[in-house]
Write a structure and sequence with these properties.
binds 6-O-phosphono-beta-D-glucopyranose; 4-stranded mixed beta sheet; 8-stranded parallel beta barrel; globular
């Protein structure tokens, strides 16, 4: 654009986190165990056996953290509620102490003029429900989840105006039921598609309840999306990229928006005997639960090439932080992911592709005709705490700056972007990659196994984003 449009006046400049990754206090004040509390204890599942028992102790230091948010000038802060703090067994008796923690956090945010944005589910399912009926594999979860959400809706109605239903359903389903690096640690395609269908019903049921209760505000899911490119113009590779879009994105977002599974994916499921059980009323429920926005978690794009039926299957993701340790993966007969020769990579092999964000925003806006809330975007890297307690993360500033330019371009293209939450505000536990993969504006002095004093230090990016917010993005 010769001249970019300004960011909207009420643009939500924000930052995000998730309960398990920051709170710690995993068994305090009546909290029940979640599937992540247990999964991290299985040997070899996380980097050096790291867990969120203490995490960055946000549970005890939330006031200090909110003060930092206020100093930076955040307009919104996205966090998730740990279901097991509210209902230690996933259902049944409510734990008032758990509710009070979030009430205090929300009040603290509001007192500092920061809009709370609440994610209902960021992967920490109550272990009790996993044990009782297999979690997302049973329809019982629809009622239990909706009851849990209702408790929060009623308690925080009026105070919380932005609600995220499920965080990255595609990630927790694929990693939990195929790659075996999330709980419930299963590799079974039939069960995966069944659990996924039920998760769709959960999402729809919660949105329907939100409407019935007339809760003021907006609600929608957060989806992990990055555009799929073709490696070149060979039609076979272009088709592979189309497959990757259908199977990796439309399979979820079409359901959220239209209440329909994409035609080609459904046919493939039928041909492979993998269709989930769809009962009377399911599709009707899905069709009528249209979200107010599409939440977008954007990190990277993917390049695709043709993959024959005897081609590449499960690969290996880089959880080591050593560049180049990703092993090719794909879905035989559909696509395989290959490296992009045009983009820089992080130390965890994630493509750095700001233009991909502009493309993502445009694709979502065109196909789904909904406002978009960017609920996550950020750079996971090694940071160094200097002797004088400064952290020069200029690479992170550049990463965010370029992504803001892409957002500004998309806004100028006509896309309605409600806000932008960086991942993350403080450093936190990266589920599989420990504490050394840092995302925050605020450095937390701890490493994988030594919690040290968990002191907070502002990185260079903290001050930079502070200025961006102050000028409403004028000087990017
Ligand atoms: C998203 C999640 O998938 O990406 C976050 O919603 C996560 O919880 C983030 O931390 C970054 O991923 P990772 O693997 O680098 O921690």
């Amino acid at each position: 654009h010769v001249e970019r449009k300004p960011f909207p006046k009420d643009f939500l400049w924000g930052s995000a986190s998730a309960a398990y990754q920051i709170e710690g206090a995993w068994d305090k004040d009546g909290k029940g165990p979640s599937i992540w509390d247990n999964f991290v204890r299985i040997e070899g599942k996380t980097f050096k056996g790291t867990n969120g028992d203490v995490a960055v102790d946000h549970y005890h230091r939330f006031k200090e953290d909110v003060a930092l948010m206020a100093e930076q000038g955040l307009k919104t802060y996205r966090f998730s509620v740990a279901w097991t703090r509210i209902l230690p067994n996933g259902r049944g008796e409510v734990n008032e102490k758990g509710l009070m923690f979030y009430e205090n956090l929300i009040d603290e945010l509001i007192a500092h003029k920061i809009e709370p944005m609440v994610t209902l589910y960021h992967w920490d399912l109550p272990q009790a429900l996993q044990n009782a009926y297999g979690g997302f594999e049973s329809r019982e979860i629809i009622e239990d989840f909706t009851n849990y959400a209702t408790i929060l809706f009623k308690r925080f109605a009026g105070k919380v105006k932005y609600w995220v239903t499920l965080n990255e359903q595609n990630i927790f389903i694929i990693h939990g039921y195929k790659l075996q690096n999330h709980p419930p640690n299963v590799n079974n395609a039939k069960r995966m598609f069944q659990a996924n269908h039920i998760a769709n019903l959960v999402n729809a049921s919660v949105i329907t309840k939100f409407r019935e209760l007339n809760i003021p505000g907006l609600i929608g899911p957060s989806f992990a999306y990055g555009p799929n490119y073709s490696i070149d113009s060979n039609p076979k590779n272009v088709l592979a990229a189309e497959n990757a879009e259908d199977f990796g994105a439309h399979f979820w977002m079409d359901v959220y928006r239209f209440g329909e599974y994409p035609i080609m994916v459904w046919q493939w499921l039928k041909d492979n005997n993998l269709t989930p059980e769809v009962l009377d009323g399911d599709m009707d429920l899905l069709k009528h639960a249209i979200p107010d926005f599409m939440g977008l978690n954007y990190y990277r794009t993917t390049v695709n090439a043709d993959n024959p039926l005897d081609g590449v299957g499960l690969g290996k993701i880089n959880t080591t932080g050593v560049k180049g340790s990703t092993v090719e993966s794909g879905e035989p007969g559909l696509y395989k992911h290959v490296s992009n020769p045009y983009t820089d990579k992080t130390n965890w092999d994630w493509d750095i592709d700001p233009t991909g964000l502009r493309i993502a925003l445009r694709r979502i806006a065109s196909r789904y005709r909904l406002p978009i809330l960017i609920t996550e975007n950020g750079l996971g890297e090694y940071d160094k705490l200097n002797d004088d307690c400064t952290i020069d993360d200029s690479y992170r500033i550049e990463y965010i700056r370029q992504h803001l330019v892409a957002i500004n371009d998309a806004i100028s293209d006509g896309v309605n972007v409600l806000g932008y939450c960086t991942w993350s505000f403080t450093d936190l536990l990266s589920w599989l990659n420990g504490y050394q993969k840092r995302y925050g504006f605020v450095y937390i002095d701890r490493d994988e196994l030594d919690e040290k004093e968990l002191k907070r230090y502002k990185k260079a990016s903290f001050y930079w984003y502070q200025q961006i917010i102050k000028e409403n993005g004028k000087q990017i």
